[in-house]
Design brief:
Layout (H helix, E strand, L loop, with lengths): L5 E3 L12 E2 L12 E5 L2 E5 L3 E4 L6 E3 L7 E2 L2 E2 L7 H7 E3 L4 H5 L1 E4 L2 E5 L1 E3 L3 E3 L1 E6 L7 E2 L4 E8 L7 E8 L34 E2 L2 E2 L5 E2 L7 E2 L2 E4 L2 E7 L4 E6 L10 E4 L31 E2 L4 E2 L4 E9 L8 E10 L2 E4 L14 E3 H11 L4 H4 L2 H9 L3 E9 L6 H4 L25 H7 L4 E11 L8
Keywords: Carbohydrate metabolism, Cellulose degradation, Glycosidase, Hydrolase, Polysaccharide degradation, Signal
Catalytic activity: Hydrolysis of (1->4)-beta-D-glucosidic linkages in cellulose and cellotetraose, releasing cellobiose from the non-reducing ends of the chains
InterPro entries: ConA-like_dom_sf, Glyco_hydro_7, Glyco_hydro_7_sf
């Protein structure tokens, strides 16, 4: 997924950075979040579930005091002379989830607020579901379904409430990278199919080399290295548009986390890296069905909805080959089947992601075929079989203003051409400066997470 989440501090004594040592100023207590595992016999609550905040949002300072290791969008080069020295000299702190970051849980519900003001101003967040205090919960989605309730009624144009799986290490990279002393407890080890280069610590070392401050984000930049892994976007959405998208990778460990540099990261040629940055997306609006999802539409975003995603294999087993990813919704007690593609002169009426759907939509839309190049559904399934971490987030987009999700994109394309129109938001929308000023009270609520056998995680009437 495209990612530009960041944290803006008003006080110069605090700043966002990735650190690998552990500080002692703020105890790290993970907010509880209950979820359920389901079989034909029923669902069982995992009442000890919890969440951990990604390390990129946390204050990091020198281990010997309070001096920042990273301020604004630049490294403190007196401390971080190189990556190894920075990871040795810097400590990451625990988080005050509600006061600083606007993150709250209640039973099985998680609320992520967009703008939170306390002593500083926080923008967006990214959290992970935990199996224990020091390990992420791992999911093998093959021949299973994943379900959650979502309330996007307070997410306008330009925002993304995203729920997705990435092939991170269960321990946040501690065992592979000895310089990482913080691990999953402090939200380390992030990766995705964009091979993001704005991650400040990768493989236990600071991404100092070649770091360039962002020209349009006062709190972000890019270094020489990126961090790649396969990614399954279950839910990228606001109140206007939604998409679900697999992104396979050919990293050295079957789609697992790998540090990249140069063209491996997709730089400068976007589609020639080791991951598929575009994915094979199913966005109902983009697929020609413009009255299916949105305020007052068939799936009404003014109200909470249940989102069900099923991962079908060729032999109906957790060791089979992934062949199809299906979507359905439940709202007001009624099961709503996914919309169908509405281009009768170009392709059959598909209502799920299959290899044929991906081939036909890429051809019809004139999109790059990096999904197929990186192995398509088969490679995506091979990665899923290794186990993925659940990510829940809210973010705005400094790269493309979220227009790829909810407007016409590319903006100079003909909206009457199949694949260009992705939602009703104007092409002038989504500028983070505007979104942050105009929609500070935006939020997303995720609740009632369930995982289990196909057909067991939702109730129909």
């Amino acid at each position: 997924m495209l990612s530009a989440a960041y944290l803006t501090f008003l006080l110069t004594s605090l700043s966002v950075a990735r650190g690998q040592q552990v500080g002692t100023n703020q105890a790290e207590t993970h907010p509880r979040l209950s979820w359920q595992t389901c079989t034909r016999s029923g669902c069982t609550a995992n009442s000890n579930g919890s969440i951990a905040l990604d390390a990129n949002w946390r204050w990091t300072h020198v281990t010997s005091g309070y001096t920042n290791c990273y301020t604004g969008n630049t490294w403190n080069t007196s401390v971080c002379t190189d990556g190894a020295a920075c990871s040795k000299n810097c400590a990451v702190e625990g988080a005050n989830y509600q006061q600083t970051y606007g993150i709250t849980t209640s039973g099985n519900a998680l609320t992520l607020k967009f703008v939170t003001k306390s002593e500083q101003t926080n923008i967006g967040s990214r959290v992970y579901l935990m199996a224990s205090d020091s390990r992420y919960q791992m999911f093998n989605l093959l021949n299973k379904e994943f379900t959650l309730d979502v309330d996007v009624s307070k997410l306008p144009c330009g925002l993304n409430g995203a729920v997705y799986f990435v092939q991170m290490d269960a321990d946040g990279g501690m065992s592979r990278f000895p310089n990482n002393k913080a691990g999953a407890k402090y939200g380390t080890g992030y990766c995705d199919s964009q091979c993001p280069r704005d991650i400040k610590y990768i493989d236990g070392e600071a991404n100092v080399a070649g770091w360039q401050p962002s020209p349009n984000d006062t709190n972000a930049g890019t270094g020489n290295y990126g961090t790649c892994c396969s990614e399954m976007d279950i839910w990228e959405a606001n109140s206007i548009s939604t998409a679900y998208t697999p992104h396979p990778c050919r990293t050295s460990n079957s789609g697992g986390q790998q540090r990249c540099t140069g063209q491996q990261c997709g730089t400068p040629i976007r589609h020639d890296g080791i991951c598929d940055p575009d994915g094979c997306d199913f966005n109902s609006f983009r697929m020609g069905e413009k009255e299916f999802y949105g305020p007052g539409k068939t799936v009404d975003t003014n109200k909470k909805m249940t989102v069900v995603t099923q991962f079908l294999t060729n032999n109906n087993s957790t060791t089979g080959t992934l062949t199809e990813i299906r979507r359905l919704y439940v709202q007001d007690g009624r099961v709503i089947q996914n919309s169908k593609t509405n281009f009768p002169n170009l392709m059959p009426a598909y209502d799920s992601i299959t290899g044929k759907f991906c081939d036909d939509t890429k051809k019809a839309f004139g999109d790059a075929t990096s999904f197929q190049k990186q192995g398509g559904l088969q490679q995506m399934g091979a990665g899923l079989a290794k186990g993925h971490v659940l990510v829940l987030s809210i973010w705005d987009d400094h790269t493309a203003n979220m227009l790829w999700l909810d407007s016409n994109y590319p903006t100079d394309g003909d909206p009457n051409k199949p694949g260009i129109a992705r939602g009703t938001c104007p092409t002038s929308s989504g500028n983070p400066k505007d979104v942050e000023a105009q929609s500070p009270n935006a939020q997303v609520i995720y609740s009632n997470i369930k995982f289990g056998d196909i057909g067991t995680t939702y109730t129909a009437r």
